[in-house]
């Protein structure tokens, strides 16, 4: 049957930056995967000004956070601290954790000494007491985790009742439609990209999962989802972008 549509043909997502390519060969086991320490400075510089980070993802997260004056915020997977800096400017007291000491070193340089920064893996129990934070921001980090269950339970534990988990992840539809070969949508599966900086390639392994797996994981950890959004470009973006890139979720910690 012929399908006629008046919809303009637009790419699902913009052609990714040329420094990201799918890994096609078996990985060299001697090269560590997701080793942000190896390219912390280069990634941080890219993240600072790129369309996807500086004009889509970060403004969306700041807008979702809203008025954070006086809030205690954990930036989980804070990387080099660009979001933490924006939240601090808005009056929040920010703590940052990240698995990469190299990324935290860049964050320390940006943020100075009066922000608590700790090396911590989001797959492990977190070094904070119950109810320590008003909000947790998890920017572009959950898609590195195969199992969200233990992590979301920990984030729920360290939030006060009614506190918010505000997360951004690679959009599940983009991760499905743009993959070749296309994976089974309903399954949680991994894939590896190579990120190339200065002629050296670093493997990054991501986990894609269907939308229902994300919302189920939030609910099972005790979060009531209040927002699911698909951010678009903020004003001032250097180029137009009509595709899909990220999805944001806001979960409110049940009392
Ligand atoms: C794409 S960067 C995003 C950094 C920052 N949130 C931002 O948006 O600018 C992903 C970050 O997640 C961190 N990360 C990856 N897996 C992690 C884990 N299991 N626990 C803690 N941090 C992790 C990386 O070290 C890296 O700094």
UniProtKB/TrEMBL annotation:
Gene3D superfamilies with a match to the protein in the record: Vaccinia Virus protein VP39
Keyword Methyltransferase listed: yes
InterPro entries in the record: Methyltransf_11, SAM-dependent_MTases_sf
Region (Disordered): 1-26
Family matches, as Pfam families: Methyltransf_11
Any one Gene Ontology molecular-function term assigned to this protein's record: S-adenosylmethionine-dependent methyltransferase activity
PANTHER family xref list: TRANS-ACONITATE 2-METHYLTRANSFERASE (PTHR43861:SF1), TRANS-ACONITATE 2-METHYLTRANSFERASE-RELATED (PTHR43861)
Protein name, entry field: Ubiquinone/menaquinone biosynthesis C-methylase UbiE
Biological source species: Nonomuraea soli
